[in-house]
TrEMBL record:
Protein name: Mitochondrial escape protein 2
Coiled-coil region(s): 625-652
All residue ranges annotated as the RRM domain in the record: 68-159
Protein localization: Mitochondrion inner membrane
Pfam hit, one: RRM_1
C-alpha cells in the first residue's frame, strides 16, 4: 500500500454485513483526493483477486470510501433494507444530483422526491436500490455528508411488502377456498391415510401384541401356566359365570359358529340371545386363537358424552391413528365463516361425525383387504369380470381359514339406539367385506329385529345365525350352589325355578344370598323390583313414561302373537309387539323357518312378576276396564262408519214418494244387497258393543270396591 498506509482499527457491523476500517496515511494535502482514490482502488483490486469470504457467499466483496459521518447504532428495531429515506437538512437536492452521489454503490430502481405541495418536515427523498448490499453501503458512506450546503441524513425505510399470490387468493375466495380444501384432502390422503391403514393392520394382526410373541408364549407356558395347573385341575368340574360356552347345551351352537368361520365369507353370521346369555363370552372363546380379528363394541361407542368422543372410541377400537377429532369442530367453524363471507359452503372443509365414521370404516376396509388371503379376494374379483374371464379362475380355492380376518360387531342395534347412524355404516361395511370375500362379519345382538335391518344391506342372501337361550334349570341350580358356598339353601331349587336361567338375574340372586338373605326372600326382592320395572316400562304408570313407549297398556295386557296381532287391539300391526321386544319386556320365539310363533316374558324373572301383577285384583280389573273401553270405542267407530254409509245410500231416495232417483224408480238389486249386508254387520257390532258396555259397568263396580 502506498503513502505509508497503516490500519488503526476495525469496527464490524454484523447487522449490515460489513465493517469500518480506520486508517492513516502520509501525503501532500494537495494530493489527498488523488491518494484516497488510489488507496480505494488498491483495496478494490485486492478484494477482487483474493477471496476473503466463504465459497458459499456468492455476493461480491466491495470497499467504499466513507464521505460523511456514519451513524453507528445498535437499535434493535432497525433493520437493513433496500430502500433508503434521505432526509434533507437544508434546501432540496434535485434527483440528478442524488443519482450522481448514490449510483456508485449499486443499481438504483427509482428515486422519488417529496412533492413540493407537501408540508411534511423534514423534506426527504426515497431511493430504492435493487440490492440490499448497495443500500447498506450507501447509507454508511454518505450519511452526514454535505451536498450544496445540505446535510444528508439517511435511514432505512422498510417497505410494506405485498404478495401478488396472496392478494389474488384473498380477492378470489370462491376459487381459493375449495382449492385449499382439495390440497388439504390430498395431503391427508397421501400422508395420513397410509399411516392409519398401517396402524389398523398392526392392531388387527396383533403385530405389536406381546402375547402373540412366541418367546412370550413359551415363557408363560413354562412359568405361570405350570403354577396355575393345580388350580385349573381343581376347577375342572366347576362351572364359571364367564365361561358359559363350556355348557353342553352350547356345544352345538359353538360347533356351527366354528364351521362357518372355516368357510369363505359368503354371508353374515348373526349370534342372537337375550342379555346375559353369554353371547360375547362364546364368540370370544371361538376367535381367541384367531390371529386377524377386529372387535367393535357398539355399546361402549354409543356410551359417549359427545360426537367427538364417539369418533375417538370407534377409532381406538379398530386402531385408527392418528385421529383429529378437534378438526370436526374446526372444519364446521371454517365452513360457517366461509358461508358468511363468500355466500356458499366450502367443498371439502365441512366435516361431520357421519363423514368421520365413514373415513374410519373405509380405512378399516382397505386394511382388511390387504390382510385377507389373496386367493379369496382374487376369486371375488374374477366374479365381477366377464364370464369368459371367470372360467379362467381356479376352481379349487387354496387358503388358510385361520388367516381370514374376523370382524365382530357386538351389541349391534341396542335398545333406545335403533335409529343411530352408526348402524347403517356398520351394515354397509359388513356387506362390502362379505360381498368381496374379505372377512367374516359376526353380529352379536339381543335384538331379533336386526335380521330385517341387515337384509336391506345384503339382500337376496340367507344369514347364518345361532340363537343362545338361558341356562336350563339344572345348570342354573349348579351355578348358584357353587357360588353361595353352602349357605342356607332351603327353598333354593324352587326359587331358582321361578327365577330362571338368565345370568344377570342369577348374579343378583347369588349376591343377595351371600349377604345373608334366604333364597325365597332374595327371590321376592327381585320379583318386587321386576314388578316396578314392568309397570314403568310396559304400562307407563308415570305420564312421562307413557309418552316414551310405542304401545298402550291395553296392548301389553293382551299378548299372544298371532291371535293378538290380528285382534282389534293391534289390527294386524306388530310394530308395538316388536317395540315391547326391544324394551326386553317380552321375547318372541321363532319357528325353524323364521316365522314368529309365540310370545314369552323378556326374561324368566318377568314370568314371576307377571304372575304377581295378574294376581293384583284391583290392577287387573283396571286393565280389563281399559281394555273393554278401548274395544267399545272400536265398535262404536265401526257402527258410526256403517251408519254413515247407510245414510249416504238413503239420501238417494226422493222424499215425496220414496222412489229411487235413478232408473225405473225401484232400488237396484246390488244396492239392496249392500244395504242388507251393512244392516247385518251393524247388528253384530251392536251386540258386541252391548257386551262390552256390560263388562264396563261390572268392572267399574269391582274397581269402586277396591278389587
Amino acid at each position: 500500500m502506498p503513502y505509508n498506509f497503516n490500519i488503526k482499527g476495525v469496527e464490524p457491523r454484523k447487522k449490515e454485513g460489513g465493517m469500518f476500517v480506520n486508517f492513516v496515511f502520509r501525503v501532500d494535502p494537495a494530493q489527498k483526493k488523488k491518494a484516497l482514490e488510489e488507496i480505494t482502488q488498491k483495496v478494490q483490486t485486492f478484494l477482487k483477486d483474493k477471496s476473503i469470504v466463504p465459497w458459499f457467499n456468492v455476493r461480491p466483496t466491495e470497499a467504499y470510501l466513507v464521505k460523511g459521518e456514519p451513524f453507528i447504532e445498535d437499535l434493535s428495531n432497525r433493520y437493513p433494507a433496500s430502500r433508503l429515506r434521505v432526509e434533507f437538512q437544508g434546501p432540496d437536492i434535485p434527483i440528478e444530483t442524488l443519482y450522481e452521489h448514490f449510483r456508485p454503490y449499486g443499481l438504483i430502481r427509482d428515486i422519488s422526491l417529496l412533492p413540493e405541495s407537501s408540508k411534511d418536515l423534514p423534506r426527504y427523498a426515497m431511493i430504492q436500490y435493487s440490492k440490499m448490499r448497495s443500500a447498506t453501503s450507501a447509507k454508511n458512506c454518505i450519511h452526514g455528508m454535505f451536498v450544496n450546503a445540505t446535510r444528508l441524513n439517511i435511514v432505512y425505510d422498510m417497505p410494506l411488502k405485498t404478495n401478488m399470490v396472496y392478494n389474488w387468493m384473498a380477492s378470489h375466495p370462491r376459487i381459493t377456498v375449495p382449492l385449499i380444501a382439495a390440497t388439504v384432502a390430498g395431503i391427508t390422503y397421501t400422508i395420513f391415510d397410509p399411516i392409519r391403514v398401517f396402524f389398523i393392520t398392526s392392531k388387527t394382526t396383533q403385530r405389536f401384541n406381546i402375547q402373540e410373541n412366541r418367546l412370550y408364549q413359551w415363557l408363560r407356558k413354562e412359568t405361570i401356566d405350570r403354577l396355575m395347573a393345580f388350580r385349573e385341575k381343581s376347577d375342572d368340574n366347576d362351572e364359571s359365570f364367564e365361561d358359559l360356552s363350556t355348557w353342553k347345551e352350547r356345544e352345538q351352537e359353538e360347533s356351527k359358529l366354528r364351521n362357518w368361520l372355516k368357510e369363505p365369507p359368503e354371508t353374515f353370521i348373526v349370534l342372537l340371545g337375550p342379555n346375559g346369555s353369554g353371547k360375547s363370552s362364546l364368540i370370544n372363546k371361538i376367535i381367541q386363537e384367531k390371529r386377524n380379528k377386529v372387535f367393535i363394541k357398539c355399546d361402549v361407542i354409543l356410551n359417549s358424552r359427545d360426537e367427538n368422543e364417539l369418533v375417538s372410541k370407534l377409532a381406538r377400537q379398530v386402531g385408527y391413528f392418528p385421529v383429529f377429532t378437534l378438526m370436526v369442530s374446526l372444519s364446521n367453524l371454517v365452513d360457517g365463516l366461509a358461508s358468511a363471507t363468500i355466500g356458499q359452503k366450502t367443498v371439502g372443509f365441512s366435516s361431520t361425525t357421519d363423514t368421520e365414521i365413514k373415513k374410519i370404516l373405509d380405512a378399516l376396509t382397505i386394511a382388511l383387504h390387504d390382510i385377507a388371503p389373496e386367493s379369496l379376494t382374487k376369486k371375488s374379483w374374477y366374479a365381477h369380470k366377464k364370464s369368459r374371464d371367470y372360467l379362467e379362475s381356479p376352481m379349487v380355492e387354496s387358503y388358510d381359514s385361520a388367516e381370514i380376518p374376523i370382524v365382530v360387531i357386538d351389541a349391534y342395534m341396542t335398545k333406545d339406539k335403533e335409529s343411530h347412524e352408526l348402524w347403517d355404516h356398520l351394515a354397509k361395511l359388513a356387506a362390502l367385506l362379505v360381498e368381496n370375500r374379505v372377512a367374516h362379519v359376526v353380529f352379536v345382538s339381543s335384538n331379533i329385529g336386526i335380521i330385517k335391518h341387515l337384509s336391506r344391506a345384503l339382500p337376496n342372501k340367507t344369514f347364518n345365525y345361532a340363537v343362545l337361550s338361558d341356562a336350563p334349570h339344572e345348570r342354573a341350580i349348579g351355578l348358584v350352589k357353587r357360588h353361595v358356598h353352602n349357605k342356607n339353601l332351603e327353598g333354593l331349587e324352587a326359587a331358582v325355578g321361578a327365577l330362571g336361567g338368565r345370568l344377570t338375574d342369577l348374579k343378583l340372586f347369588i349376591n343377595k344370598i351371600r349377604s345373608g338373605q334366604k333364597p325365597n326372600d332374595a327371590l321376592q326382592d327381585l320379583v318386587a323390583k321386576a314388578i316396578i320395572d314392568v309397570r314403568k316400562l310396559a304400562f307407563g304408570d308415570d305420564s312421562e313414561d307413557a309418552k316414551t313407549i310405542s304401545w298402550s297398556g291395553v296392548q301389553f295386557w293382551k299378548l299372544s302373537y298371532d291371535a293378538v296381532k290380528f285382534s282389534p287391539i293391534f289390527n294386524g300391526d306388530d310394530t308395538p309387539i316388536r317395540a315391547m321386544e326391544q324394551a326386553e319386556l317380552i321375547s318372541i320365539t321363532q319357528l325353524t323357518n323364521g316365522r314368529p310363533y309365540t310370545i314369552k316374558p323378556g326374561k324368566p324373572l318377568y314370568q314371576a312378576a307377571f304372575t304377581e301383577i295378574i294376581s293384583d285384583g284391583l290392577f287387573a280389573a283396571t286393565m280389563e276396564l281399559q281394555t273393554a273401553e278401548y274395544l267399545l270405542s272400536i265398535e262404536n267407530n265401526k257402527i258410526k262408519k256403517f251408519e254413515d254409509e247407510l245414510e249416504k245410500l238413503g239420501s238417494l231416495f226422493v222424499k215425496t214418494d220414496g222412489k229411487w232417483l235413478f232408473g225405473s224408480g225401484h232400488v237396484p238389486e246390488p244396492v239392496e244387497h249392500r244395504v242388507k249386508f251393512l244392516l247385518s254387520l251393524l247388528k253384530k257390532r251392536h251386540i258386541r258393543a252391548e257386551e262390552y258396555q256390560k263388562q264396563i259397568e261390572e268392572l267399574k263396580k269391582v274397581v269402586a270396591k277396591g278389587g
